[in-house]
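The freezer alarm interrupted the setup, so I double-checked each line after restarting. Inputs confirmed:
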Amino acid sequence: MAKKVKFKLDGREIEADEGRLVIDAAKDAGVNIPHYCYHPALGNPGNCRMCIVEVAGAPKPQVSCRTSVREGLDVKTASDAVKRAQASALELHLVNHPLDCPVCDQSGECGLQNYYMEIGQYQSSVREDKQHKDKRIEAGPHVMLDQERCILCTRCTRFVDNVTQTHELGVFRRGHTERLELTPGLILDNAYSGNVVDICPVGALTDRDFRYKVRVWYLDQTDSICPGCSRGCNISVHTNTQRPWHNDGKRVARLKPRHNHEVNGYWMCDEGRYNTGSLDLGRLGRVLRLSPQKQDVSWEAAASEIGAKLRDGGVAFVASGMLSNEDWAAAKELFAGAKFYFSAQPDQIGEEDALLRRREKVPNLKGAEALGLSSGTFDELAKDLEAGKVRALYVVERDLAKIWGVERAKSLLSKAAFRVFQGPNKVELSESYDFRLPATAYVEEEGHFTNFEGIVQAYCKALEPIGEARPDWDIFRLLATAKSGAAAEVAA
Amino acid sequence: MSVTTATKSPFTAEQEAVLLRWKNEYPYPNMGLVEALRSVQDWNRRMTPECVARVAEIFELPFNRVWGVATFFPTFTQWKTGRKRVGLCHGLSCWLAGSDKMEKRLEETLGVPEKTCTADGEYSWESMECLGACEQGPALLVNDRLVGAATEETVAKLKESK
Amino acid sequence: MTKILTKHFDEPKLHELETYKRLDGYKGLEKALTLAPAEVTAEVLKSNLRGLGGAGFPTGAKWGTVPPVDKVPGPRYVVVNADESEPGCFKDRVLLTRAPHQLIEGLLIAAHAIGAKEAFIFVRGEYQNQYDIIEKAVKEAEAAGYTKHAKLMLMRGAGAYISGLDTALLETMEGKKAWPRQPPPFPTVAGLMAKPTVVNNVETLSMLPFILREGGEAFAKIGSAKNGGTVVFSVSGHVEKPGIYEVPMGSKLRDVLTLAGGVRKGHTLKCVIPGGTSMPPLMEKDLDLALDFDQIRAAGTFLGAGGMIVLDETADAVAVAHNIERFLTHESCGQCTPCREGSYWNEEILERMLHGKGTPEDVPNMTRIGENITGKVICALGDTVGMVTRAYIQRFPEDFKKRISDGQKS
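Predicted 3D structure, all chains:
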């Protein structure tokens, strides 16, 4: 534990850890000091000169990202001199900036814009022509680079040098000829490339997926957990419902990482980030009986029929680590006595690395484990199906065709007398069931995931469910009530 | 000490040896990097990504770091210099002594604009920042050696001294 | 006038060991090696020797901040800064050419004082002639057995002015872009490869043989208060006899000008840049100013590295400021925004003025830009970027007015 010391911040006495950077200690105390180059995970090169403060006794202004807290330090962050210094640093950042905000995707979340409104608002005194640099450089599959907008804060180069150690970007040449460029022969194509867009304080690095789709001020943000693997990166789901005709009609506009020191730091991987495309594809919105013929039914009708089938035993429950802790608990109750199959199969296994990515591409196997649930193998399930031991097969979200191949899955499915599919999206064989129940996607519900280290994390509801979709746990609860025969209660 | 070559080296075996020697010249390998790049500039008269990438490989450093160095220092060029790289100082004292006039003389004498190599690859010229010979301005430099003041005579003589 | 460094400059073979030895060469080192390192530092402190590369920091005090070996074990280094690149400065070139052994002796004394087993001479790349001379001299010194306590190594720069700034020099030596560091830690605590490192200028180190031979007090006596010994001015520009002139610290500007033959015939003095182009100029009224680090500051400028450029009435302040800002723009490393953007902006405005397109608003605007740079940047180069144009505007407002009104007339 660092020693606590007292220092003065704009006249207030503040307690902070000795040696903590003034910019951080001020933030802890609710004072945001403007800055571009400083990033807590990427260091403090002190090149943007925005975080200038006055320190009593110092002969000239100091940058707060390189000043450490010590006993008796007296810092002013809002004096006239500081405001002037920050406005002038901002002005120098803008001398050669194209000011193309109307066509810039960063508009609305741009460090240049925000500080201009906060501390700038001067009349431009630039009469010279702006420097022209390269624009629309396809830096990689996800990232577009505009050199004219770049303020050379070096956050992105520090990211590729120190975090991913892939070195695809560099600040080359010198002085006013300096440019942020791709390292010759390389493209920005690493597993975490999207993070450079987040850390870019201006519009120099933008997301190719997100470019020109929707203005950021039309987006709503909701705290969530990435379901892409068992890391459970904390994310913010940015949704577009205010302007439904924007963003090609997609409700989720983008995912952004949320800082969590314990889990993901400031980052998330590209796999998780760009995983939103299929969210609204083939959504199930209606409660359907599929046999003997396709027919809309009410939740209550479906529940009472399915509930009755589950009463008789011989039930196999297939699910995946996509279920929340709440879902698992409800499933444990509903499917007591049934065999569970939820282990990650090759379709849910992928690359892992030392930074964030985990091998199993589902968020919550640990939640099942914590409830004492264990998964049988899919070979066992296949054998049981072959042997006619499975009377009722209940599948949540899982695409059996991806596990067994289409033909075999089809044949195995036909061996069960009664089959239910439940999930947010259609899967390959989702027509080959007796019932199909619409469930909410993770962005339409709230719940908890337990990550691979056992950390339980909440995710919130960002969007309304589609059609009649309900959270998995809610469906299980409905079925449990029906199963126990209390149909009247269900109706209520 | 040997370094494995991932790609075909753009350097000769002798040049590779020189680069390795720079790597081992000082207490820490990185300290030889600027000198190694100076050698590359001498040999190729410019910096190319292929050459610099090989230097990075030899020094076991990320390429973007070494390319940063190779594009930062004025000694290193991306345009091809002449075998005789002529520099004319245009610092304040040399400018007071008439460096702009001598720039024109250089251009006429060598027959090429600034930072352009003559067709035979022999000469190029460029304005340089202070060469540390302010008392004999405008100072003239050929291949990093000061040759005194740039005058009508000395500039004319440049071309003769093949 | 008392001379220390250039005393024997009429000896044609001073650069050779034999001649140098005949003229009391290496006696200072021999003396130093009989003393404990702390005693050498104490002698240098007594001498009031100041860093002659431009900062003027007391050399002994700088050495004193190197942590002792018993507290911080491991290597420590001395680096000679022979990267002289500021317009107006060429004294190091002459010292390297004429008296390489004087520098080597000084370097070996410094190495002993701080316990460095390895020392580096960083020579700017454009001084290849001087590099050859110093390389030969190092070999002579090695052969003569002077380098038993410290190995000497040479290294060349690659054309960047900013490499002459101590921390940027260390970055260059480490094979990086010459982006200045932001102390703390200072190089004496964490310098080359994060080891304690003393970076001293050629002229500073060259003073050490005298100090050790004759004693710190004798050296201090030559100069002015807190400014021991002599200083070598590089004089160029509009003078009759450009060249280097060694004078005691505290000598009058008038006397240095006289040594250089005065303003060229038929012309009158406009101003004198005292320390290299980055320094604000002194005016005619300052002719009786005593030139040392402290007294010159009172006149609003700096001794710098003693690169004196004399301008006569033919020099136009706008064109001079433009030349200097162009230099600084070219040499700005690009690390911090105010210097990178501000230098270019200033240069562009001045260039427009030179083309007759200046406006009255440009003058207060450039003053404002300058104020917004100086003191708010990473290094001293950036400080000067904001200082130069302001200094010429302040001293020669009529030159700027004339440029603007001439432009408006045409």
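Quick read of the result. Residues 30 and 61 of chain B are 8 Å apart (CA to CA).
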